[in-house]
Putative Binding-protein-dependent transport system inner membrane component
Amino acid sequence: MTIASSSPPSRLPLGGAEGDLTVPKTQGAKAREGQGDGRLAALFLAPAMLGFLVFLLWPTLRGVYLSFTRFNLLTPAEWVGLDNYVRMVNDPIFWNSLWVTVEYVVINIGVQTVAALAIAVLLQRLTQSAVLRGIVLTPYLMSNVVAGLVWLWILDTQLGIGNEIIGAIGVDRIPFLADETWAIPTIALINVWRHVGYTALLLFAGLQAIPNDMYEAAKVDGAGEWRMFWRITMPLLRPVLAVVLIMTVIGSFQVFDTVAVTTAGGPANATNVLQYYIYGSAFGRFQFGYASAMSVALLVVLSAITVLQYRLTRAGRSDLG
């Protein structure tokens, strides 16, 4: 005769499903898994970090050091303290270059931002055709050097097709790139033509994040397109617009290619922007210490402008919520 045991049979802990036996991970296993993820992340980040250290951080630190020296590539760097910075403050060409650069930035950013915003809104409100977006982006696919050369030929005073058209309608030919008054606005508009499509697509991406329900509700309330633009589009687009402005301002202060292939800083230093003056000082006159000092000054100016823009535009906060 079999006697049944009075004690209940032992049962293993069950998982989420009936009969699914699971063993909880120990803290050591979790720690080892986390270390494995960290090593994998470090492996993927290593190439970018190496490039950052070799091509950005080290040249920046080296440039800061050279700004306190007299260096011409032929002799060892000689420590001169603040002499390069004193020379920079007393250099009229430096201040002229800074003013010319600011003039270029104001024209370029003003026209480019307004035009890009108009294009982005039209693309978002009227059509979202991928073909049109590709056409808008086409000039950006051209390098600055090629764009500068093309417009140099178009705007040539004697043989350019642009001046041929101007002359055909009975207007005197305009020396766009050979006149002190016209040179910087012309260079600014050339770069607007090249970059406006890319800037417009960045803003278009920001517009895509705005819910259509807001526009539909505004239409029900009787709001027109102009009122919706100022009351809905601009406030909700502000963070994206702020980031775009920061990027374009930094890029505009670094203008070089277009000036180099069109005017070479002329006429009479009218287009001698700061980057071109730095280049001429370093590779034209081999004054690498002085060029480094001007580069450090430009870095400080751009850092201050970026921080000021970020704070004034509240780029880190969105009204969409």
User: Anything to note?
Assistant: Residues 27-66 form the longest helix (40 residues).
